[in-house]
Structure prediction request, 273 residues.
Amino acid sequence: MTSILFIIILFYLLSSAGYILFLFAQKGIYHRLAYRLMMAGFALHAGLVGYEFFKIGYFPAQNLHQTLLFAAWTLAGVFLVLKHKYRLNILGVYAAPLTTAIMIFALCVPSVAVASTPLFKSLWLVVHIVIIFIAEASLALACGTGILYLIQEHTIKTKNNRFFLKRLPSLEFLDRTGYTFIITGFTMLTIGLITGFVYAQLVWGKFWSWDNKEIWSMITWLIYAALLHGRLVAGWRGRLAAIMAVVGFAALLFTFFGVNFLLEGHHNEFTKW
Prediction:
C-alpha cells in the first residue's frame, strides 16, 4: 500500500517537474511528458481508490487519509479532462504540484480505521461525496486560473518582467476559461449540496440542522453565487473575478479542513479526522 503511494507520488512529482520545465523552456516535449506522467499517476491512483473501495466495502472517504487520496485523484482527473477540453496546458504548473502536495499530505496522515455502518453504504452518500469533490476540483482549478490571471495582469501593468507575458495565455482567455471552471464547479456544488440535504433527511430526519459544516458550505456557495451574479448583472470580470475565485476557494478550504479540525458538528461523527 505504502509502496504504491510512493509510486503514484513519484509520477505526480515528475509531472510537476515536467510542467515547470515547460513553463521555462516552452517546449512541447516537456508538456507531453508531463501530461503522460499525470495520466499514468491518475490511472494507478484510480486502481488504488478502487482497491480501497472493494477492500473495506464502502466508499473510501471516511477518514482524513482516505479523503485526501480521493481529493487528489479527483483533482488530477478533473484537470486532465478540462485541460484536454480547453487546451490550458500551462495550468499544469499549478494542478500537478497541488495534486502532489495533497498526496504527500495523505502519505503523512495515518489511516484510522472507522467502524462500518449501513450509513456509509448509502447511495446518496456516495453520490454526494463524488459530486462535491468534482465541484471542489473544478473550483480549485478556477482558483489556479485566477492566480495566473493576476500574475499576467501584473506583468502587463508593470512592464518590467516579460517572463510570464510570453508564457501565459491572454487575459481574455484566462478570464473566460476561469469563468467556465466556476460555472462547472458551482453547478456541481449546487447538486452536491442538494444530495447532501437529502442524505441529511435520511440520517438525521431533517434537511438542515445549522451544523457548522452546513453553514460554511452555504457561505461558500453564496460567495460563488455572488461572483456569478455580479458577472452576469454588474459585469464583474478580470481582476475582481480572479480575486473572488481565490477568495471562494479559500472559503472552500476552510469548509473542507477548518470546520473538521476547529469546529464541532454531527458531520464529524462519521469521520476520523
